[in-house]
Amino acid sequence: MIEMRRRGLVRCAVVIGSLVGIGMAAPSNSVAADLDYGKPGSPVHLIVGYQPYYSEAWSGVVIDGLGLWKKYLPAGSTVAFRVGLQGAIIVNAMLAGKESIGYLGDMPAIVGATKRNVADLRIVASIGLSHDQCNIFFVRNNAPRFKSSLDAIAWLDGKTIAAPKGSCTDRFARAVFEKQHVAPEAYLNQSIEVITSGFRTEKLDGAVIWEPTASRLVLEGLARRVATGNDVGEEDGAFIDMRADLIRERPDIVKDWLEAELQAERYLADPANALNIAEMATRRTSGFTRKQMWQALFGAYPSSEGGAPVRLTVPFGFTPASLSLIDKATAFLYSIRSISVPKLAPDAVLPQFTAEILKEHKLTAPIGAVEAAPETAFK
Length: 379
What we know:
By secondary structure, the protein is of the alpha/beta class. It has two domains: 2-129 and 236-296 and 310-377, 3-Layer(aba) Sandwich (D-Maltodextrin-Binding Protein, domain 2), CATH 3.40.190.10; 136-232, Periplasmic binding protein-like II (D-Maltodextrin-Binding Protein, domain 2, 3-Layer(aba) Sandwich). Helices cover 41% and strands 17% of the residues. The chain has helices spanning 2-21, 59-66, 69-72, 87-95, 106-112, 149-155, 168-180, 192-200, 213-219, 229-232, 244-249, 251-268, 274-283, 290-297, 320-335, 352-360, and strands at 45-50, 78-83, 101-105, 121-130, 136-139, 160-163, 186-189, 206-208, 224-228, 236-243, 310-314, 368-371. The strands form three sheets. It has a five-stranded mixed sheet with strand order 2-1-3-10-4, with helices on both faces. A five-stranded mixed sheet has the order 7-6-8-5-9, sandwiched between helices. The radius of gyration is 21 Å and the shape is globular.
């Protein structure tokens, strides 16, 4: 135990040194009361918000499913995983001090990092980049058969379209409308559940939906997938937010957790694990089949439906694409008045932790990719 604590203190000193070494101080005290995480090297008790209902953030599902945190956190530590139906729920819990680590889509990760008047959250890892995990256009089943994805997008002009406003789907939809000069007659703010019902009752012409709900719509025959970010060069992403008090008090735990995250992302990128991951995700959700979960992250789609050879890139560290997405999404959130700043504070993103781990493992970001597999790979 003494040796374990010594190693924890060494890790703590190394991480703090890297923070100062690049000219960035450790997070300052937040407005809300800080939580007590114990001394470096001691057991820690964490509550983690994660999203089995958002496949781009499934590295959290892998950490839970395989119990990877047990390998890295100090002996005697405990972790409780709480499912968030959407990222905003997790952010609210983190701001309230009820959760300390959150697996989030790009939009809630950014919103959380702008609420320092409530509590201080920072973005510490880039866990997923894709063009068709959040950025997916659907049309009703009786829509015309289109020659191309761009023709399908053009057909949406003057139609009734829905998306959850303020989400990654909203950002994607508006970017495509602007690029392709599409003006819907009605652009509705609807939840995933209402959109699904809208397609069942034929009240919607189109919608933008994220995975795994997108693959459920396809496999249940409720709507047709017609275009994705692959067709128009628009990315989506997922990130990890952590409370600043955790980062400040227990940089050893930050590094320990990210070591588990690195292993989880490498597990995700190995095609031999696809069926097992789909099973993990199915057990942590309701209303989805194992086939739908497999299709959401691992199954191939034709190029006519916005498919591409790669379903997901796992950066772990912050790549130029990750940082560009953060800037773009921040500007969008500011434009729709979801946040009060046009750019994040310089210390809102902390790349030092993942950079140090990558260096120790002699790796570079991105560390892997999930390649699209044919239907015959599902057994």
